[in-house]
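Summary for the lay section of the report: proteins are chains of building blocks that fold into shapes. Here we show the chain for cysteine-S-conjugate beta-lyase and then a coded description of the shape we predicted for it.
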Amino acid sequence: MSKIMDFDNIEDLRTTHLVKWSPEFTAHDVIPMWVADMDFPTAPSISDALQVHARSANFGYRHRPARLFESILNWFQQRHQWRMQTDWIVPTPGVIPSIQMAIQSVTNPGEGVIVQTPAYYPFFSSVTTHNRELIINPLIGSTDGYRFDWQLFEAQLTKASAFLLCNPHNPVGRAWRMDELTKIVELCSKYQVSIISDDIHCDLVFPPNRYMPIPILPTTTDVDVVYCYSPSKSFGLSGLNTAFTVIPNPVLRKKYLSKLHSTGYYWGNSFGDAALEAAYAHGVEWMDTFKVYLSRNIEILTHRLTEIGGIELMPIEATYLAWLDFRATGLSEEEVSQRLSMAKVQLEKGSVFGEDGRGFQRMTIATQSFNLEETLSRISRVF
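The coded shape description reads as follows.
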């Protein structure tokens, strides 16, 4: 297996200062499977680009080169059949800052923003910190996965100014289908509700599912949509603080830039820019191989959980995050967490994703297969 494809290689992450591998876990032989970060080295093309950039003689403010924007345009056209335009792209320091700028740009204080639970927990504070009303729209869960409560969603749209969509959805692993996204667009258009779409996991969708950006749908919308992206989850670049939004509406884009610049953000991180460009320009082979490896981990997880009583895996259509249902164990969330602690395994409690997540735990499976196997062996000894 070539270097680019050897995801079974492992380095000692305990001394890297990675949040995932904090001393509070590693000092006690706890396997950390909680935060949405991978355990793999990033693509060699990215490491090489960063080393070249590190040899630069000057690290002052830099204009972003045209080739950086071209890498984004080419990636999204080839991978997702979306023909963006360069001037739609607004670089940002991260997806959550992108979302917060979008909320401030498309809503006014006191107006409502719909968030679907279980939800990535920074969504909640992104709404409330800016004095907007948080409108909770619970997804309907079943053994087949999660779906919209369309009746409730439409009723809530009458009270909202924005809908915060997660496409694909973290933590429940849904890759929203064309018919679902089309209905979202039609309903938001009907009630003139702007859409803020967190699409950070768009490159991590598994066949036969696919990522569907709203602009390629067979429908049109007259409401504003802000798309939030980053290669951080797909390529393991969270520590480089590099992201971008896509805003087709020039009037909204100007307003968004004004909000962004008011935070003091102008030029960005040149190392993050170098990594982003390398990811999209040269990361195809690595990404394709990574997804095959993740698919194998999903197979391992699915098989092993059939041997452990009371834990059900929700279908993983996208992301490297497994949403595990512990409710059939009859244990409270605290009791589940206590048993996991006894097993020396750290997952993410479902309740942090909203009350609709209580009874679940989120597991990151972007790790070496033998590490996943060991994690599941430890869990099997306490359930």
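Put simply, here is one thing we learned. The chain is about 35% helix and 15% strand.
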